[in-house]
Design a protein that fits this description.
The protein is built from 16 helices and no strands. By secondary structure, the chain is an all-alpha fold. The longest helix is centred in the first third of the chain and has 38 residues.
Length: 426
């Protein structure tokens, strides 16, 4: 559940502002949350190489001392990069969103202003989120999946209550939603630190602050382990995905605030569903495949994970399609937004269904350290999809998502073929 937190909180924010703004302001508020949420979630997504590397390293380490050194190094890098992300997010928010959303009409300028407000406030929680993600990766590497779920529940609960007060009662709109999200990220980090201290800490470190302080002070050289080795390929992977989503959002923004609001809801549902599949197949592979190197169990585990991801993809696709076609009232009081959202229910469900084999193939490649292929394949896909959208020149939101379905199908085939090859030779 490592990467679900950000999109889940964005979805909660989207629902809160969409329902509390009324039919007239709903589309404008959700339209602002689209690029605003994408910038915040994308900024955090850039640093997933830290979490992937930590899970991979911990799964193959056998001594407590070395595992502790990996956690300490990963937590320190996460906090440092979180502070840097806070700074650059606040610096680039307004000019980047002005370019990203475009337009000089009053409606477009208002969307830009509200989106920039959302990013500037929510950025305050990024250092806590990245540190929490590092601790989640450490717990997953220690085969503890319950603690991250507890922390995620605490975070979501805090965000729901915060949105109810800040957005529903106080009427603070996107600013209130961002404040609730930043607070929920702090809560999640504190809960994770508490649980990690119990599971991974030493005697006398039951309190979160003492545990985190020791991690930041403990810096040992990791022999044969390099976070930088994962950084390049995973950053290419992340940049390719963010570029694809950015092209989709950029295209949807040209259709007006209502299609952009519907696209924001569609993209948020897709991200949440896809990250569930990433957790089911991808993170499980990264946690359990490395110790099986050179053993027959690797191929058996690969087949089991493919079946599991396929079942999960069917359930996720059905849920996503139902939310888009019948559940629009959960997110917006604007009938126009609901109507546009219903038009993309089928391509949304199809793209989620195809993400099952994608998540499995991607997870297997990362778990087996097939990093050159991951980097090269996503570098190519980062060029192909924007070109595909440019050639197709979609004239509607459904056209944008139809192009995404075709691209997902191609990725599923390529990653499955590669996963079968690397598992056989692992």
């Amino acid at each position: 559940m490592l990467w679900i937190s950000g999109p889940l909180l964005t979805l909660i924010d989207t629902s809160a502002v969409g329902l509390c703004s009324g039919a007239e302001g709903s589309a404008l508020e959700i339209a602002a949350l689209g690029p605003g949420g994408s910038v915040c979630d994308g900024a955090v997504y850039f640093y997933t190489f830290l979490n992937i590397a930590m899970t991979n390293f911990l799964a193959s380490e056998t001594t407590e001392e070395k595992r502790d050194a990996v956690v300490a190094r990963g937590a320190t890098l996460a906090l440092r990069n979180g502070i840097l992300a806070l700074i650059w997010l606040r610096l680039i928010a307004r000019p980047f969103l002005a370019f990203f959303i475009g337009g000089r009409a009053s409606g477009a300028l208002e969307v830009q202003r509200r989106a920039a407000t959302y990013v500037n406030v929510r950025a305050l929680g990024v250092p806590f989120l990245l540190l929490g993600n590092a601790l989640t990766a450490a717990l997953l590497g220690a085969k503890d999946s319950k603690a991250p779920l507890i922390a995620l529940g605490a975070s979501a609960g805090t965000n729901i209550v915060g949105d109810f007060i800040a957005v529903g009662v106080l009427g603070r709109g996107v600013r209130g939603a961002a404040e609730a999200t930043a607070l929920s990220q702090v809560v999640q980090c504190v809960v994770l630190a508490r649980l990690a201290a119990r599971k991974l800490g030493k005697a006398g470190e039951s309190w979160p602050l003492a545990y985190v302080r020791r991690l930041l002070k403990t810096q040992q050289r990791l022999e044969g382990r390099s976070f930088k080795a994962f950084a390049g390929p995973v950053l290419v992977l992340v940049f390719s995905k963010l570029l694809s989503f950015g092209v989709m959002t950029f295209t949807a923004a040209r259709f007006g605030s209502v299609p952009l609001a519907a696209h924001q809801l569609t993209l948020t549902i897709f991200l949440l569903a896809s990250l569930v599949l990433d957790a089911v197949a991808g993170q499980t592979a990264q946690a359990f495949l490395p110790p099986l190197k050179g053993q027959d169990g690797a191929q058996r585990l690969g087949r089991k994970l493919l079946k599991l991801s396929t079942y999960a993809a069917f359930v996720s696709a059905a849920t996503a399609g139902a939310l888009a076609s019948k559940g629009a009232r959960l997110f917006s009081g604007d009938p126009a937004v609901a109507a546009d959202l219903a038009t993309v229910a089928v391509p949304l469900a199809a793209s989620v269904l195809l993400h099952g084999p994608i998540a499995h193939g991607e997870g297997v490649c990362l778990a087996t350290s097939d990093l050159k292929f991951v980097g090269a394949s996503y570098a190519v896909s980062g060029i192909i999809f924007p070109a595909l959208v440019g050639l197709c020149a979609p004239t509607s939101l459904r056209g944008v998502w139809n192009a995404w379905v075709g691209f997902q199908a191609a990725r599923a085939v390529v990653l499955q073929l590669r996963a079968r090859h690397v598992v056989r030779s692992y």
